[in-house]
Automatic annotation (TrEMBL):
The modification N6-(pyridoxal phosphate)lysine is found at residue 237. Its cofactor is pyridoxal 5'-phosphate. SUPFAM superfamilies: PLP-dependent transferases. Residues 38-379 form the Aminotransferase class I/classII large domain. It comes from Parendozoicomonas haliclonae. This is 8-amino-7-oxononanoate synthase. Gene3D superfamilies: Aspartate Aminotransferase, domain 1, Type I PLP-dependent aspartate aminotransferase-like (Major domain). The gene is bioF.
Length: 388
């Protein structure tokens, strides 16, 4: 009786798709101890090295003294602290929008926003490589769900032209999380406006890493609120903390407060996380050298891979995947790197399409040139062994 869970687990293993976790000792940084072994890691999303920044930590500690730890209630009950309010105001100013609203996670923000804006009879158009949370949000909303070809405004336009839904929402990642490329948002915005649709962008990986002062893809493409009414970002990546936000008009934010179920029915993030994020936002904006150093590491890594004949994706962001093809090849490469003390995760289906398994290398401003060279040297050894 009961569920027979074994067959699906066995199949995952047989397909080289089984996932398991490792235990990290200590903070997120390039040199970490994982499962008791010291390794040089290229897999965190802490692109600017703020997750373990002394000032961010101090703000977190001070806030714990002032506010305690837990948020204690949802925002609409009495869990909305001064710290949350101030962070929202600062995120609104940062994004150049009238308002911003905090969510507990990016996943919840995406589910909540899309299902608050759309319902049965509406239509949602998603880039086929969108983050799982955007796809799930679209499905949950009950709107007619359509995917268009990756980074293809013509494919989007074809689908938009054929719909008569009253509300149409176009949804895309700003920087694609598994590929590192940037969506053609100027074109998406133009097509969306032409067909009277709204555009929503999830800029989880663009905030902090691209645009002036790390203002993300909206700044990069100069997209104001008219072209890009729904702008979402996460705090767990370049911000180095945790949580997410949506920025937009007064009406949009009030709509989310009233109708986004993942906003309403959940506890606010700890006020200390909000205070830590206020500090990391300041550093993220001010420390231009972090973005400059990161860009120089990206150039160094790409040049090195090119010299080794490794296939990289067309990415100018800190996400620099090496294309492997089949899942077993990506896994074996990742294992060989680990034998050499280097950690890079193999990304396999269903996270990425079949046949496009990859090593997802992510670089951070906290890496040094010497560390990039160590990665390149290990890649060279493994490639040479593979050929021999
Ligand atoms: C990480 C990520 C999310 C989820 O954010 P969390 O705060 O980790 O839940 C959403 N969208 C994209 C594109 C992401 O990379």
């Amino acid at each position: 009786m009961g569920f027979d869970l074994q067959p699906a687990l066995q199949k995952r293993k047989a397909d080289n798709l089984y996932r398991s976790r490792r235990t990290l000792e200590g903070p997120q940084q390039p040199e970490v101890v994982i499962d008791g072994k010291p390794v040089l890691a290229f897999c965190s999303n802490d692109y600017l090295g703020l997750a373990n920044h002394p000032e961010v930590i101090r703000s977190f500690q001070n806030a714990a003294n002032q506010y305690g730890v837990g948020g204690g209630a949802s925002h609409l009950v009495n869990g909305h602290s001064r710290a949350h309010q101030q962070l929202e105001e600062e995120l609104a100013a940062f994004t150049g929008r009238p308002r911003a609203l905090l969510f507990s996670t990016g996943y919840m923000a995406n589910l909540g926003v899309i299902s608050a804006l759309l319902g049965k009879g509406d239509a949602v158009f998603e880039d086929r490589l969108n983050h799982a949370s955007l796809l799930d949000g679209g499905l949950l909303s009950g709107a007619k769900f359509q995917r268009f070809l990756h980074c293809d405004p013509a494919s989007l336009e074809q689908k938009l032209a054929r719909t008569e839904a009253p509300r149409k929402l176009v949804v895309a990642d700003g920087v694609f999380s598994m590929d590192g490329n940037i969506a053609p948002l100027k074109d998406y915005a133009a097509v969306a406006q032409k067909h009277d649709a709204w555009l929503m962008v999830d800029d989880a990986h663009g905030f902090g890493t691209v645009g002036h002062g790390g203002r993300g893809v909206a700044d990069l493409f100069d997209l104001g609120m008219r072209e890009l009414p729904v702008l979402m970002g996460t705090l767990g990546k370049a911000f180095g903390t945790s949580g997410a936000f949506v920025a937009g008009s007064e009406e949009l934010i009030e709509t989310l407060i009233q109708f986004a179920r993942t906003y309403i029915y959940t506890t606010s993030i700890p006020p200390g996380v909000a205070e830590a994020t206020r500090t990391s936002l300041k550093i993220l904006e001010q420390d231009e050298w972090r973005r400059e150093h990161l860009q120089s590491l990206i150039q160094r890594f790409r040049l090195g891979c090119e010299q080794l004949g490794l296939e990289l994706m067309a990415s100018s962001t800190p996400i620099q995947p090496i294309v492997m093809g089949e899942a077993d090849k990506a896994l074996s490469f990742s294992r060989k790197l680990e034998e050499r003390g280097i950690l890079v995760t193999a990304i396999r289906p269903p996270t990425v399409p079949k046949g496009s398994s990859r090593l997802r290398v992510t670089l951070s401003a906290s890496h040094t040139e010497e560390q990039i060279d160590r990665l390149l040297a290990a890649l060279e050894e493994i490639t040479r062994e593979d050929k021999a």
